[in-house]
Amino acid sequence: MTTTTDGRRLRGERSRRAILEAAATLSSVEGLEGLSLGRLAEHLGMSKSGLYAHFDSKEDLQLAVVETAVAMYGRDVMAKAAEHEPGIPQIVAFADTFLEYIATGPFPGGCFFIASFLDPANLRRPVKDALARAQKTLLDFFATNVDVARRKGDLPEDIDPSEMAYEIDAILVGADVNFVLFEDPVRLERARASVRRLLGG
Amino acid sequence: MTTTTDGRRLRGERSRRAILEAAATLSSVEGLEGLSLGRLAEHLGMSKSGLYAHFDSKEDLQLAVVETAVAMYGRDVMAKAAEHEPGIPQIVAFADTFLEYIATGPFPGGCFFIASFLDPANLRRPVKDALARAQKTLLDFFATNVDVARRKGDLPEDIDPSEMAYEIDAILVGADVNFVLFEDPVRLERARASVRRLLGG
DNA sequence: AAACCTTACGACCGATCGTGCTAATTTGTC
DNA sequence: GACAAATTAGCACGATCGGTCGTAAGGTTT
User: Fold this and answer.
1) Rounded CA–C1' distance between B59 and D21, in angstroms
2) Distances B171 to A85, A112, A169, B99 between C-alpha atoms, Å
3) H or E element that contains B30
4) For the purposes of burial, counting CB atoms within 10 Å of the CB of B88, is it exposed (0-12), middle (13-18) or buried (19 or more)?
5) What pLDDT, in 10s, does the model give residues B39-97?
6) What's the predicted TM-score (pTM) here?
7) SS3 B198
8) Whole-angstrom Cα distance, residue A29 to residue A187?
9) A52: which nucleotide lies closest, measuring CA to C1'?
């Protein structure tokens, strides 16, 4: 992270960040590919070419948006989970925070990542790879914590951490999809219960 | 279903069906909103206006595509499940058939519905409603069979059918998303195991 | 203050978008 | 064989797409 005192670059940083957060927000609704430069610029109250000065291409913008979303989730969700002790508490905290984030966070269209995983932007290799990396990080986070819990004796000896990580993820993905589709918060409550049931015994 | 012997209409029916099946297939990759009339026409080897004569608007086409996908899943997946006895066998058969369908069926981009649930086409009310109806039908199918299994004594008395239906759905949704993202069939195997674990014991 | 760098703008490009309108062609009815 | 019905193609529209340009405004360096 190179810190600059150059006012021009600082201003650029700031507006670049504003562009990217708005783009991430809009993407959860209009899709990563469906978001157009024109509408994004209009939404920001700036010219299309002014916006475009920050990025080489649409794909470049998309990659930056994914990166931004990773940072947002890290700051808003992952950090909250990290406050709890490793193992089951950390997983449960993540799930609860995540589910609340879906409903009230900066992504009106539901989880940015889940929406993006199935977006046509995945036809672009670099975009798909960036998204896959993010998802792999999450699955590893779950698996590691499951393993910790297992060693602690909070989970049976014979479970497969990566298999259980996949099931935890599935509950959250299912919750997001159904919540977005039915616009019914009860789906999120159910997911909370399911996670606890899966980990609780 | 009005059967006609009019050759003109028959020809129309046939090409309309061809258009819709191709559109459903392409939609699973390019998205329901991202699919353009031009590319669809080109893929079919016909003119854009010739294709457009079958539909009043893009939204009208999208609605017909959803309807077509419902029919395809009914014919290819639901029918297979219906051959098994109600209860756990029917659920397991559905899951297995569905997971195989994802990998080898006519939808190269994974499950048409799951992709569509998060597609920007959902900004159109009628499209979203049609998709929600389809998903509700599936959840009811699961819940009904869970209830049958419960009455049979194959599942504990105290489970909530609609809650368990949601968990079965989540496993399948999670499998689809991860399979599409990682292009790894192992995800589908895991889902088969998860469904059995959830229903088994 | 001159030279330079960065941000942002307006104008514009070719391509494609969804969508009409008309004509031509095929098929069926009388 | 005349007429109607239905499918398909040709053509063109206004809008918007992603993207390129030249340029002015303002901050930085010397």
Assistant:
1) 37
2) 27, 20, 9, 11
3) helix B7-30
4) buried
5) 999 999 999 999 999 999 999 999 999 999 999 999 999 999 999 999 999 999 999 99
6) 0.95
7) helix
8) 19
9) D19
